[in-house]
């Protein structure tokens, strides 16, 4: 059989277009060709199960070999699968495969911008070989009894030739005469890297074979000289007879010979291992998997030395097929949260990492594998956003995650609290991205409090309703807000600890999902519990005295600090050792956070230009320093001391509220030294 033909090229410069568009992902030809080889094996296995290939032994061993010959610049993908006849070559290579490639090009041309990238570049198929080869050959023999081998070759991606093949065993050999652009893939390490990326879990064992043309230089080993020396210790020489020494020597030689033969036998029995895992863990039934297997799979795939906290095994067959394992990693540091990795597969063929159009966005913070055989592949990312299958898959995954969390919460509350610090950020972020997730897990969301306990929102509100009904207090920096925390603890109050970046928007989200509940930072207001209450109704004289004290202190601090807009309020607090504190209203604080987050946006800059923090300096009338200021205010001989103490009291309050600027800190240190010097002078 000899035949020549011409492929009907519909796109001008077919190969240059492929190479240009897919230059950064040219290793996908490996996925396309090796997955085709695996498909050939899988199809033959199905025919054997159906009884349509009875002449093939049931225990037949199948494999795919990637053969590299750097010297000849040749690469081969060899399988022992279903094979093809010459007619099937014409149908599947000249017609179907080519049509698929040209269809891919037309779609890619339309969607070539970054926002509409074709998912995984699927669809190019067999013709991806021309990304790295000047000439491609197919030598194949069909599984059909009596079939003849057939050969197809194409040197330019346009003109092809067909002839009788030379293959004598069932299967297909694709030979690539590698071009200069593809020589890097003739390197074993580079090929191994690409196969691990795309083919690590393909369903057929895959091997790399390396061929060199250098003649093997085998030096004929000299026959081993017989060692007639008998090695014994001095004690043995003194105590053993001649016959006993000879018997010992013969025994030692027999044991040495037996050991050598055993080692040689082990070496002969050891077979090469495939580089892939044809039966990945996610294909097994969850009940058949052990904790050790889950952990080992996690370490192998994600190169994480830490064990995962827990995992979710997805196993769905109807109304769509979806299998996979999602792992919740242990966070070494909070910023590890950005290093999630969800690997997407289709029938064990790798597609891509972290496709946000397919995977619920909050899960991209996790690590895991998802195998989605029914997902459309040769489509743009934007098309997936409105795909019905993807929407159903997202809902299913979200439900499974919620079910797992609720199960852990109810089964072992103590253990659940133990890893909440690691998973809390995942679920807070997830609830804000997927409100249906919040509705499912709201009773399992925990708040860690300043008392060191973990409580749900409902538990916190119920526990504190007599002290501050429908209010949730929180802290964002335990060290900086230590003074407020101490005051709370002294009065039997607690606050939630919300210190991660995701907690800033989560505060507003909690209020949104819990109407009637106020969530505010610990320095936003003074709860009644912190104030000394006056028995009975205050007299008019007392009210006038308090008003005078407020005005007096406000004028004093405004004048000393040079801030006419400063709000000052004097209160009787139970904590006498606290001289002052700064309150920032919750609304103002959130506005300032928004301004900080969008500070680079010109529109927001203009919007927030006139926004100033709504701060109030609260002076504690129960404190001796404040009492001194109230008595000394307006006295000329006390002015220097009043000025110094006012500055110091204000800075102390400020330090519990925010970090001092470099200028403020320098002034505070200098002033502290002056105060200490004055104290030292008094002791003389």
Q: Short description, anyone?
A:
The chain has 684 residues and is of the alpha+beta class. It is built from 21 helices and 21 strands.
Description:
- The structure is a single chain.
- With 684 residues, this protein is of the alpha+beta class.
- It contains 21 helices and 21 strands.
- The strands form five sheets. The chain has an eight-stranded mixed sheet, with helices on one face. Strands 9-10-13-11-12 form a five-stranded mixed sheet, sandwiched between helices. The protein has a three-stranded parallel sheet with strand order 17-16-18.
- A hairpin with an 8-residue loop joins strand 4 (133-141) and strand 5.
- Helix 2 packs across helix 4 (188-199) and helix 19 runs antiparallel to helix 20.
- The chain is elongated, with a radius of gyration of 38 Å.
- Mean pLDDT is 83; it is low at 111-123 and 215-226.
Percent of residues in helices = 40-55%
From the spread of the alpha carbons, the general shape counts as: elongated
How many DSSP E strands?
Answer: 21
Structural class from helices and strands?
alpha+beta
Which sheet architecture does the biggest sheet show? 8 strands, mixed
Q: What number is the mean pLDDT? A: 83
Q: Strand fraction band?
A: 15-25%
Provide the fold topology:
Elements: E1 2-6, H1 14-21, H2 28-49, E2 64-69, E3 74-79, H3 86-110, E4 133-141, E5 150-154, E6 159-164, E7 171-178, H4 188-199, E8 206-210, H5 234-239, H6 242-269, H7 291-302, E9 310-316, E10 322-328, E11 341-346, E12 349-353, E13 367-371, H8 381-384, H9 388-411, H10 413-418, H11 420-433, H12 435-441, E14 447-448, E15 454-455, H13 457-463, E16 471-475, H14 482-490, E17 496-497, H15 503-513, E18 518-521, H16 540-561, E19 567-571, E20 580-584, H17 586-597, H18 602-607, E21 615-620, H19 624-632, H20 639-655, H21 662-682
Parallel strand pairs: 2-8, 11-13, 16-17, 16-18, 19-21
Antiparallel strand pairs: 1-6, 2-3, 3-7, 4-5, 4-7, 5-6, 9-10, 10-13, 11-12, 14-15, 20-21
